[in-house]
Design goal:
globular, 4 helices, about 15% helix, Peptidase_C19, two-stranded antiparallel ribbon, Papain-like_cys_pep_sf, Peptidase_C19_UCH, cysteine-type deubiquitinase activity, about 220 residues, alpha+beta, seven-stranded antiparallel sheet, Cathepsin B, Chain A
Length: about 220
């Protein structure tokens, strides 16, 4: 599929990602790094069927060892914006032969725009839209070490998001006006203990999993 994409738009996004200038230690920086353009060279060259056929002719005339490898570019972008976005943060790193937990706080917003990380031909985004907005409604947090610990969650009690239901049942609508977080009350849940908390408390948590619902 990649070889048949229009080379002029293959690496284009709905919104200019170079305008982001994401802050290091933020979820935007994580997404920017995850979707960065990579060059495949030397031992990472791409096996190119088109180049091989051009050089050796049809496949049935090619000996098994005769293939053409070429330099290439690779980029992972979102081609279908989901109704519910789940972001899983890698909270461990290799330290010699051991795994070490990463306790660094990653900043995340109540409303996130995925447009800079979506392909310009994103399947379920209306033509002309340059924003793909999501509102935060759930966070999972882990305390402890790699060997033991405790999971807690933050969840927002809110009114039903009719647009989200429409997305699931009927696909994207032509135009949606919501650009603010879905209103509601946040709660912290730890086993059987539930406590109302502020949005600032949620945004200061050591997020392990983030759950967003699509606004537009």
């Amino acid at each position: 599929e990649v070889s048949t994409e229009d080379p002029e738009t293959a690496f284009c996004t709905l919104a200019n990602r170079e305008d982001l200038n994401p802050e290091e230690g933020s979820i935007y920086h994580c997404l920017y790094q995850f979707t960065r353009n990579e060059k495949l060279t030397e031992t990472n060259k791409l096996l190119c069927d088109v180049c091989t056929q051009r050089h050796y002719g049809p496949k049935n005339n090619i000996k098994s060892e005769k293939y053409v490898y070429t330099n290439a570019k690779k980029q992972m972008l979102i081609s279908l914006a989901p109704p519910v976005l789940t972001l899983h943060l890698k909270r461990f790193q290799q330290a010699g032969f051991n795994l070490r937990k990463v306790n660094r706080h990653i900043k995340f917003p109540e409303v996130i725009d995925l447009a800079p990380f979506c392909t310009v031909k994103c399947k379920n985004v209306a033509e002309g839209n340059t924003k793909v907005l999501y509102s935060l409604y759930g966070v999972v947090e882990h305390s402890g070490t790699m060997r033991s610990g405790h999971y807690t969650a933050y969840a927002k009690m809110r009114s039903m998001n009719s647009h989200l239901s429409d997305l699931v049942l009927r696909g994207p609508s032509p135009q949606v006006l919501e650009t603010e977080p879905v209103k509601g009350q946040w709660f912290h849940i730890s086993d059987t203990h539930v406590q109302a908390v502020s949005a600032s408390k949620v945004l200061s948590s050591q997020a392990y999993l983030l759950f967003y619902e699509r606004l537009l």
